[in-house]
Amino acid sequence: MATSSATAKALSKEQIVAGFNELRQQQRMLASRISEIEMDMKEHDLVIEVLKGVDASRKCFRMIGGVLVERTVGVVLPGLISNREKMKEYTESIRSSLEAKGKELNQFRETHGIQFKADDSKEEKRSDSSQKPGDRQANILANV
């Protein structure tokens, strides 16, 4: 613990802000990736529902790596179901990474005494309402 407090004092305000912003950016990227995968899962669900009502020997086309390939529904449907399950598992693993990143972010915030102006009293919020949104980054560190 002594080394972490020594490291915290050795970092400048700019380095602390940069580290905090980096962690927040990583957290946003994970959330964005989850959103993308969930949209793909919804598309898979739609296609799976349509293909379940179709004869298994019927011809269909599937895009694989940018190439349109002719297959039968009986071949494509199990692959789609399998891909959807893999996406679900991957989303769950990214969610756990997102939770871990959130904990890391909170720990970093506590370690370096980072406070947002939004965390302060309502009176200060009213005075900050005239401030530009881009100025919030400058107000991240209040107790450093």
TrEMBL record:
Domain of life per record: Eukaryota
Transmembrane intervals: none
Pfam families: Prefoldin_2 (PF01920)
Coiled coil (residue ranges): none
Assigned keywords, A-Z: Chaperone
GO MF annotations in UniProt: unfolded protein binding
InterPro entries: PFD2 (IPR027235), PFD_beta-like (IPR002777), Prefoldin (IPR009053)
Biased composition (Basic and acidic residues): 112-135
Region of interest (Disordered), residue spans: 112-144
Function statement: Binds specifically to cytosolic chaperonin (c-CPN) and transfers target proteins to it. Binds to nascent polypeptide chain and promotes folding in an environment in which there are many competing pathways for nonnative proteins.
Protein name as catalogued: Prefoldin subunit 2
Organism per entry: Biomphalaria pfeifferi (Bloodfluke planorb)
